[in-house]
Design brief:
The chain is mainly alpha-helical and 74 residues long. The protein has a domain at 37-74. It has two helices and no strands. The protein has helices spanning 17-33, 42-72. The radius of gyration is 21 Å and the shape is flat.
């Protein structure tokens, strides 16, 4: 039976130290060390395009690759 109360997190209950400190460190690095990404130029366009194209390809490539295999099994 599935639980909808967060029981599937398998032991992450309350406020454990390691995940809290890890999230804190990640937030600090992402906010202060990385800096600002300008919304113009190749440094923005390439990752944004990749983030849009990659999921689209992952949707279509399995069907495109398995179609010829299924045809060959006839």
């Amino acid at each position: 039976m599935s639980r909808s109360d967060g029981g599937s997190f398998g032991g992450l209950r309350g406020n454990p130290a390691f995940p809290s400190l890890g999230l804190c460190g990640t937030t600090l690095v992402g906010r202060y060390l990385v800096g600002t990404l300008r919304a113009s130029g190749v440094n923005f366009v390439a990752p944004a395009t990749g983030a849009a194209v990659l999921p689209a390809l992952l949707n279509f490539l399995p069907a495109l690759s398995l179609g010829p295999l299924a045809d060959g099994m006839k």
